[in-house]
Amino acid sequence: MPQKEVEAPLAAAGRWEGNLTHYTRDGRELIVASRQALKLGSRGRSVILEINRDITAQLQAEEALRRAERLGAMGRVAGIIAHEINNPLEAISNAFYLLRDHPSLDEEARYYARLAEQELARVAHITRQTLSFYRESQYPVSVAISEVLDNVLELQSRRVQLNGIILEKVYRTAGIIQGFPVELKQVFLNIVGNAIQAMPQGGRLRVRVYECIEPSTGRQGVRASVCDTGSGIDPEHAKRLFEPFFTTKETKGTGLGLWISKGIIQKYEGTIRFRSLRFAREHATCFSVFIPGTAFGQKQELTVSLAAS
Fold it and tell me: Is the pTM for the entire model greater than 0.70?
């Protein structure tokens, strides 16, 4: 509420309570809970006594909680729907399996039956993936970081294609650790999702998984990096990127994704870092996640380059 709108009720009642918008010297907006009282000064002049309390973080937390509750409710509904459509999907898949080789069909009809069966298998796979996001194990299990990334990239494949992004994957190890699949998917879904959003006009997304030794501690572990050639990160935003409620997406983001991701990785005693570089014609931003561990998967060399179709 502007200060001018406070003056009338303050003059009429002698006191006023409410929220006001203030601005800091660097342009940041603050919401303050204000209490004002009108008093008569020693020389007969009216004096306003005012107490302000910064409640910006409190309001942001309340809004984030409301959004989280809505997202949580949507997630539960998605899980219920995915569970309920599993059975009819299986029945339809079985029907197409019997239909594709039925003697009454000609070769063209069999082709379309096989095509429909393949698409149904794809829908069933997406349904199982959706369910996996809401079925977390109670105890740590063996998790392959490469598999987690593949699941996340598959979920984001439509956006990758629509944005005209070239995807490159280089897996030098399966990267097996002991952990919780759902929360690790949440970490990489945030990182990969941000990278895709930074390239609305296309670019290159490079995903790597490899074993390494952390130079600062000497710990052995798995490192996964996600690099993009998108819009980059402004230097003034870099210092606040992992702060709660800080977002560059205006109304589209809660500012909690990277903060939560950092907390999850710290629970594994790992680290999450980033670098954003600017070259003559493009930017390059790379998020790197290190998770310590000794239970690695079988050595493998997988290099895949997928141009968006």
Answer: no
